[in-house]
Amino acid sequence: MSRQDFKIVRNVSISRIDLDIKNARIRAGQDQPDCIQRILRKEDQLLALAQDIAEKGLSTMPILVSPAPRGRFIARDGNRRITALKLLNDPTRWSPDARLKDKFEAIRQQYLPNIPTHIDVMSSTSEDAIVREVILRHSGANGGIGQLDWSAFLRTVYLVTHDLPAEYKRPGQYAFWAEDNEINVSDDFPISSLQRFFTKENLARLGFEIDADDKLKPNLRLDVVKQIANTVMSDFEYERVRVADIFTPTDAANYITRVRVMHGLVDYAPPGSTPIPASGGYQPNGSTPSPIKGVQTPTSTSATSAPTSNPTQTASPTPTPATLPSDRKKLFGRNSPGIAIPDKEVKARTIVAELRQMNLDETPFAASMLLRALIEISDAYYRKSQQIPDKNALAKSVAASADSMLNRQMLTTSQHAIVKSMTGGPGTMLQIDNLQKMLHRDTHHTSKQLVNTMWDNIGCFIQSCWR
User: Fold this and answer.
1) What is d(CA 163, CA 157) in angstroms, rounded to the nearest whole number?
2) What's the chain look like in SS3?
3) How do residues 406-463 score in pLDDT, each as one tens digit?
4) By C-alpha distance, which of 295, 261, 263 is closest to 275?
5) What angle do CA 450, 352, 331 make, to 5 degrees?
6) Residue 72's beta-bridge partner residues?
7) Which of 438, 460, 436, 458 is nearest to 447 (CA)?
8) Mean pLDDT per 10-residue run, the chain (467 residues)?
9) How many other C-beta atoms lie within 10 A of the C-beta of residue 177?
10) Among residues 244, 285, 240, which one has the least CA distance to residue 258?
11) What pTM did the predictor assign?
12) What residues have CB less than 8 Å from 112, skipping those under 6 apart?
């Protein structure tokens, strides 16, 4: 039951190949005309197949046959193709009615030189081998031993990479660009659901323009576009964002704004003012991004605006209690933390962008780990610029950097004292080493209050590292 059970029989006349009365598509055929009529139950499909064969030729998938008496063969797989060829070669004999005869005759006359009268087939006398091969061809993946059907994504990528028309062209181009730039994309990526999302306008805000060849071309720095693509592809692949979340143009714009903010392309400003693009960023038409779910828009009151009054108002509203700094949900706001990180320092910029988005009520541990990473990267950047040796321990390295900053008047005496207190001395949770212990030890836990306070104490040091 292998390839060795089959042999190629060349140049077999179509008239010598009979349809299989037990074929799954035919089912209990009485004779050859009855088999053809049963295949023609899907008339439009067979006409399309006949047109394709006449115009472009047979597919390369071999037609399987088994020998029959008097030099004939029975088609065991490929009954639709054999039916189409019979109708193309002799419409008068095989067409069940005049209407279909005329349709096949029209195809025949248009492509007569292309229509084969003889074909090569794969023949076997082993019923077990034929049955196994037919089942494999028509059972899909079959645990991996059969032929895997293409998802919409795989089909689209194939069409796009061969410059052929594709129904989902834009998402296909975007996904292929991502994979071509080392961003893994699943075979089952939901490409068909994202056609309306990848408009020309949305692609521009995601970092692409459409060039003269109708292909995507980055309009931002490559590293930024790759970061954005990685976020977008993973959001949809792992259903962190669903199609319903970006269904309307407004929803889509809000999602893209969130992604741009995450990667440092938009710095928010109070309502009514124009947001300032980050260095190297892109802001179409100078437009103000819309507020989005989970991102609070800061408010401000102009110093020159006059207070409004309501003559019918009899009492002042009860003031809302101020939120303690340690109880805030975000580590810092959209226009904070004022760290002058160069564009080329992608990791540090990304960490700041992610910290800016985190809700500390939900992710205090994640925030504490990112804060520790930001401290380490910032300190390493400063020590390299000032040629300060590594002390083999983050707390000791930060202490050495803080001493240097004090001498250079980059930290005040009180700021220096606070930072130094976080690098050693009496046991307290507000120490840099404890950030690592929170991850590895059951005895150390974190909270939004602890993370906020840690940042409030160490923020001046991190800002100074990047000056």
Assistant:
1) 10
2) CCHHHCEEEEEEEHHHEECCCCCCCCCCCCCHHHHHHHHHHHHHHHHHHHHHHHHHCCCCCCCEEEEEHHHEEEEEECHHHHHHHHHHHCHHHHCCCHHHHHHHHHHHHHCHHHCCCEEEEEECCCHHHHHHHHHHHCCCCHHHCCCCCCCHHHHHHHHHHCCCCCCCHHHHHHHHHHHHCCCCCCCCCCHHHHCCCCCHHHHHHCCEEECCCCCEEECCCHHHHHHHHHHHHHHHHCCCCCHHHHCCHHHHHHHHHHHHHHCCCEECCCCCCCCEECCCCCCHHHCCCCCCCCCCCCCCCCCCCCCCCCCCCCCCCCCCCCCCHHHCCCCCCCCCCCCCCCCCCHHHHHHHHHHHHCCCCCCHHHHHHHHHHHHHHHHHHHHHHHCCCCCCCHHHHHHHHHHHHHHCCCCCHHHHHHHHHCCCCCCCCCCHHHHHHHHHCCCCCCCHHHHHHHHHHHHHHHHHHCC
3) 998 888 887 888 888 888 754 444 566 666 666 666 555 677 788 888 888 888 899 8
4) 261
5) 30
6) 68
7) 438
8) 83 95 82 89 90 92 94 94 94 83 93 94 92 79 59 81 86 88 80 88 94 93 90 84 88 90 62 38 36 36 37 44 67 68 86 87 86 92 91 85 90 84 58 63 69 84 90
9) 20
10) 240
11) 0.43
12) none
Structure-token pair, residue 87: 């109708």
CA dist 418 and 461 (Å) reads 10
Distance, in Å, from the CA atom of 388 to the CA atom of 458, rounded to the nearest integer, reads 19
Closest CA to 59 of 37, 42, 80: 80
Query: Which structure tokens are listed for 442?
Result: 């059951």
Peptide bond before 249: cis, by omega within 30 degrees of 0? no
Q: How far from 276 is each of 17, 36, 137, 261, CA to CA, in Å?
A: 74, 70, 58, 11
- Residue indicated by tokens 């009520």: 361
- Count Cβ atoms within 10 A of the Cβ of residue 295 and give its class: 0-12 exposed, 13-18 middle, 19 or more buried: middle
Count of residues for the chain? Answer: 467
Residues with Cβ within 8 Å of residue 5, at least 6 apart in sequence: 124, 126, 129
Q: What's the Rg (C-alpha) of the chain?
A: 35
Closest CA to 375 of 331, 333, 406, 408: 331
Query: Using CA of residue 188, residue 193, residue 199, residue 204, what is the dihedral sign?
Result: negative
Percent of residues, the chain, with pLDDT higher than 70: 78
Q: How many CA atoms lie within 13 A of 142 on its CB side?
A: 12
CA distance 454 to 331: 10
> By the 8 A CB rule, do 26 and 20 touch?
yes
How much is the pLDDT for 164? Answer: 82
